[in-house]
Write a structure and sequence with these properties.
Layout (H helix, E strand, L loop, with lengths): L4 E2 L4 E2 L4 E2 L4 E8 L4 E2 L4 E11 L4 E2 L4 E3 L6 E3 L4 E2 L4 E3 L2 E2 L4 E2 L4 E2 L4 E2 L4 E2 L4 E2 L4 E2 L3 E4 L4 E5 L3 H19 L9 H18 L4
Parallel strand pairs: 1-4, 2-4, 3-5, 4-6, 5-7, 6-8, 6-9, 7-10, 8-11, 9-12, 10-13, 11-14, 12-15, 13-16, 14-17, 15-18, 16-19
Antiparallel strand pairs: 19-20
Helix pairs in contact: 1-2
Length: 195
């Protein structure tokens, strides 16, 4: 398999990378700098899926529309390995931890972290700057995670750009460590030192 399987309704706005094993069907939009990693499945037979700029959809993620609900991922988000997003909205600068499940009509506020393995039941609304854990998921702490989450998205965008060129070790180079430090300083200035 040399190319991802993209249905005819998929809209591409300069994504950084789409792995050849990805399966993407229906009304799906992939925005500038986003990346889609191995074995991701996105299906939007009804309603829509929209992946924001610089978001990364990591290995084995499933994104599906919900019961009367789009699936929206904001800018600078990391949707990590084995996550299921089902008809929910993820705000900008969020990190969704490994194996989390977020159900229909949930809204995750910007700059939040959902811990690995968390389960958010239908209709959960999480305020911005939250850390969410548990089954069912509940806010356990409030903290602005914007800079750290945006840095993770930056790492994935750069990695995606390298993968698109057939380079698989960009993170290991000393020059890239310097680039990370520069980007972190920029993000702290943008979002605040405590972000």
């Amino acid at each position: 398999m040399n190319r991802p399987l993209l249905g005819p309704d998929v809209k591409l706005y300069n994504p950084a990378y789409i792995h050849p094993s990805a399966l993407i069907y229906g009304d799906v939009t992939l925005r500038d700098g986003c990346s889609v990693w191995p074995n991701v499945v996105m299906r939007a037979e009804m309603y829509r899926i929209d992946i924001g700029p610089n978001a990364n959809i990591q290995d084995f993620v499933m994104i599906h529309v919900g019961d009367g609900a789009d699936a929206i991922v904001g800018a600078n988000c990391s949707i990590t390995h084995h996550v299921t997003l089902h008809g929910c909205t993820i705000g900008d600068n969020c990190l969704i931890g490994i194996g989390a499940t977020i159900m229909d009509r949930c809204v995750i506020g910007e700059n939040s972290i959902v811990a690995g393995g968390a389960f958010l039941k239908e209709g959960s609304v999480i305020p911005p700057n939250s850390i969410v854990m548990g089954q069912p998921g509940k806010v356990t702490k409030t903290r602005n995670n914007a800079a750290a989450n945006a840095l993770n998205a930056f790492l994935y965008r750069r990695n995606a750009e390298s993968y698109a060129k057939g380079e698989y070790r960009v993170w290991s180079s000393p020059a890239f460590r310097d680039e990370i430090a520069t980007e972190m300083a920029r993000l702290k200035a943008l979002y605040g030192e405590g972000a």
